[in-house]
Amino acid sequence: MGFGAVGAVGDAKTLVAGTGEHRVAPFLEITQADWESTIAGIRDAFRAARDAAAELVEQGEPGRLIFVSTAAALRPVQGACLAATAGAFFHTLAQVAAIELAAKGVTANVVAPGFVDLHTHYDGQAIWSDRMIPSSAHGVTTAVMGNCGVGFAPCRPEDHDTLVDVMAGVE
User: Are strands 12-18 and 3-9 parallel, antiparallel or unpaired?
Assistant: First the structure.
């Protein structure tokens, strides 16, 4: 289901809205229940945003609408149909809300994180690869490195070539 949480950031009231988690599945495996859950999440988050914006405008207070989307809305990846659909909705909604509400002191923005790969062995590959394949090919936008105990930092200059050879053999 959708969510909306109101708080304050500085002097402005802020609503953060999104649809929460989505089932990852190939397009042909998405069930009617999966789809209905996504639509319900979009509906709930829309209502929360609309109600918060109306209250802000009525009270003449500055405010922010922040929609949580996904990078998959901009660059779809396999299995992300539900998340990409919801994300595309929020991207469009934020653009329209920003145009319509700016003069009333309410901003609208989207936060669209991509997939985060929490366990990689890219420490060595980062030196010779600008794409970090295969993760980047799967839609990963952030890779955490150095958490396996095999990394390049800190490294004495005289040990650099040895570490490159070790990592080249591991990867």
Answer: antiparallel
